[in-house]
TrEMBL record:
Keywords: Biotin, Ligase. It comes from the Bacteria. It catalyses: biotin + L-lysyl-[protein] + ATP = N(6)-biotinyl-L-lysyl-[protein] + AMP + diphosphate + H(+). The lineage of its organism: Bacteria, Pseudomonadati, Pseudomonadota, Betaproteobacteria, Burkholderiales. This is biotin--[biotin carboxyl-carrier protein] ligase. GO terms for cellular component: cytoplasm.
Length: 246
């Protein structure tokens, strides 16, 4: 199904004052496109949506696969200068989850899960400081599965049978922008309790990519994952975390 691009533009643009809104039929990756533009000096606030990505990217060099029409793939680009960057992807996850459904959980640090199946991935990248100042051009890429997907993924339609990619964009775009603005001012701490209400790892046995095992106990005020290990409580700021089978 093709997007009603003009209608989407007309509905979303008024929600995002100061942003240019673009809905394109195909791109390699919305994140890659905004990074190319930033490197060419174009650092204005943009919402860029691709109906289809030919080379969608995930974290850690992974790819983000989606067929046309079965997912929502977009990036927001804007200059940001928060006093502390830690926890940004968690705050964005809170905004997306709260905008979509009560049953969505947050899997530290970047994923949204339903019943331990991945619904959404978030890829945040930043370009060089804007005009040599404190702001960095920040590209927040979000991929949301909409059509039902085989495990280990899941589609939003399994929670909301009438979900569509354009409707999902309308639901999440403004909350994510408001979150980025709040994060720039206040950092992660206002999002800590909201994250913990949806924490998919809370009180679960986890394994970190460095081999350490323990039990997850929420996040601290900077968004670090707290893991109780044999060596004591660790505040984990960068690692892959997997749930250990019970
Ligand atoms: O799960 C992950 O590792 C993150 C996936 C992020 C995918 C989105 S889709 C829109 C934007 N463009 C990309 O190439 N990636 C992000």
């Amino acid at each position: 199904m093709r997007w009603p691009a003009e209608a989407v533009w007309e509905a979303v643009a008024p929600l995002l004052p100061g942003f240019t809104v673009e809905v394109l039929p195909e791109l390699d990756s919305t994140n890659s496109e905004l990074m190319r533009r930033a490197r060419a000096g174009r650092t204005e606030p943009v919402l860029l949506v691709a109906e289809h990505q030919t080379a969608g990217r995930g974290r850690l060099g992974r790819s983000w696969e989606s067929a046309a029409g079965d997912s929502l793939t977009f990036s927001l680009g804007l200059p940001l200068a928060p006093p502390d960057w830690s926890g940004l992807s968690l705050a964005v996850g809170v905004a997306v989850a709260e905008a979509l459904h009560a049953d969505i959980r947050l899997k530290w640090p970047n994923d949204l899960w339903v019943d331990d199946r991945k619904l959404t991935g978030i890829l945040i990248e930043t370009a060089a400081p804007v005009d040599g100042g404190a702001s960095r051009y920040t590209i927040v890429g979000i991929g949301i599965n909409v059509a039902p997907r085989a495990a280990p993924a899941i589609g939003l339609r399994e929670l909301q049978p009438d979900a569509t990619a354009p409707g999902t964009l309308l639901a999440v775009a403004e909350p994510v922008v408001r979150t980025l603005q709040a994060f720039e001012q206040f950092g992660f701490s206002p999002f800590q309790a909201r994250f913990e209400r949806r924490d998919a790892l809370a009180d679960r046995a986890v394994r970190l990519s460095d081999g350490m095992a323990g039990t997850a106990h929420g996040v601290d005020e900077r968004g670090a994952l707290l893991v109780h290990t044999a060596a004591g409580m660790r505040a984990v700021t960068s690692a892959e975390v997997s749930v250990r089978p019970a």
